[in-house]
Structure of Zn-dependent protease:
Amino acid sequence: MNLTFSRDEVQDLLIAWLALGVAFTLLLERELRSALLGQVGGLTLSGVSQTLVVSLLTVGVGFLLHELAHKVVAVRFGQVAAFKADYRMLGFAIVGALVGFLFAAPGAVVHRGRISKRENGLIALAGPVTNILLAVVFVVPFAVAFFGYTGGIVWEIARRGLQINLLLAGFNMLPFGPLDGRKVRAWSNVVFFAVAIPSVLLGVGALVLL
């Protein structure tokens, strides 16, 4: 398997990663939003910096590995695959976060070549499954932080990492539009329901409970 990245693709991945980190930071830091909108707020540099680090290591990493999983499996099936950032949607994500709303569609892995429904379904499935595996990774530090103390950057990274990856998995397994769930269901209803039902339920639980 020959997995390569062009300069433009690396640039798109880095810009999307940073843009999502900034957008998520704006969403979480009300004081930063207030300051940027010219309102009075208790803005602190340390607080903003910590939130940015947490955002890059959770939503940023979750997004990057989700997309890279699509590419790895696509290349494994002989596809020509590359990530393409959607700069218009990245801008929309940042502007939306300024007013307290985040809808992130930063781009996607575009692949071409002959492919079966099964292979296309497996390429789509790779992203959500990667987020589920990342959520499992974050469960351990989350449990340690929860039973030890609920504060500090370790707690925030663990909590946000678990929450974001469960949300990404659940959202992307919805069978609508360009989402992964639609491609998985077009291949196999059995696989779709086996993955989608727990993913969506865990995603809802993460949104409500974490």
Q: What stands out?
A: Strands lie at 80-85, 107-112.
